[in-house]
Amino acid sequence: MSAATADATPQRPVVAVLGTGIMGSGMARSLLRAGLEVRAWNRTPARAEPLAAAGATVTDTAAQAVRGADVILTMLNDQTSVAAALTAASDGVHRGQVLLQSSTVGPDASVELAQRAADLGLVYLDAPVSGTRQPAEQGALTVFVSGPSAARGVAAPVLDAIGQRTVWVAEEPGAASRLKLVVNTWVINMVGGVAECLNLAEGLGVDPQLFLDAVKGGPLDSGYLHGKSAAVLSGDLTPSFALSTALKDTRLILDAAERTGVRLDLTAASAARFERAEAAGHGGEDMIATYYAGRATEQDGG
């Protein structure tokens, strides 16, 4: 990023949001609430339309969304989706725009996307986030960022709007994505632990509420345990983070671990549970639907 660009840092950058699924739409709403101008685009236009009522400009094409924007925020499913969005937007980009790439794609893919961004003249920030639907909508995500420090000024208002905390990891792309995989390993195995406790309680005829009361207020307690348990017990599996997306992230973790000679037995087991639950039709539900992978009828596809 040139000194001239850094000196011209906008106080209220215009943001193009490419990808308005669960996370992208929540982040767009947080940006709007912070008073930033937002242009929103989604490959399936109906997913972006609700943002118009919140004040966003919903565009027909990715190129229209990014044209004249200061920051391009991508929140898509995987590397292929991000690369396709950048190709679709290429006619509208200009040299020096900051690409805040927040999709979870893994460190190697992040490096490849950084090169793609450089070819387009974009300043690339590897910026995956930690959090689900509610933190995204509340501007309470944690954002891990690696990239050139000269881009911080332009990105800061966007990061402040979408997150309660920004962790600057390093200058090179991929570093933030490596940290994100470690954090996601904790989350994925934690949700599996909640599911298995509920499965065992059911199998042993133990009231699951008795289990929750037994750990409440102690060192083993957590809001995550109670929140995910409540989703299962109420039957409301509206996705804060979809099970199929969690499976995608788990596979990224296992791939990275294998390439670095690390064995992750718990994570491999979590992947197997996610796969069974997805095969049983729970892929679009919240990732705590891994609970159903612990029931014999579900394992048989019932």
Notes on the structure:
The structure is a single chain. This protein has 14 helices and nine strands. It is an alpha/beta fold. A six-stranded parallel beta sheet has the order 3-2-1-4-5-6, with helices on both faces. A three-stranded mixed beta sheet has the order 7-8-9. β2, α3 and β3 form a beta-alpha-beta unit. α9 crosses α11, α9 (about 175-205) packs across α12 and α12 (about 245-260) packs antiparallel against α13 (about 265-280). The radius of gyration is 20 Å and the shape is globular.
Topology:
Blueprint: H1 3-7, E1 15-18, H2 22-33, E2 38-41, H3 50-53, E3 57-58, H4 62-66, E4 71-74, H5 79-89, E5 98-101, H6 107-119, E6 123-126, E7 129-130, H7 133-138, E8 141-146, H8 152-162, E9 163-170, H9 175-204, H10 208-215, H11 223-234, H12 243-259, H13 265-282, H14 296-299
Parallel strand pairs: 1-2, 1-4, 2-3, 4-5, 5-6, 8-9
Antiparallel strand pairs: 7-8
Helix pairs in contact: 5-6, 9-11, 9-12, 9-13, 12-13
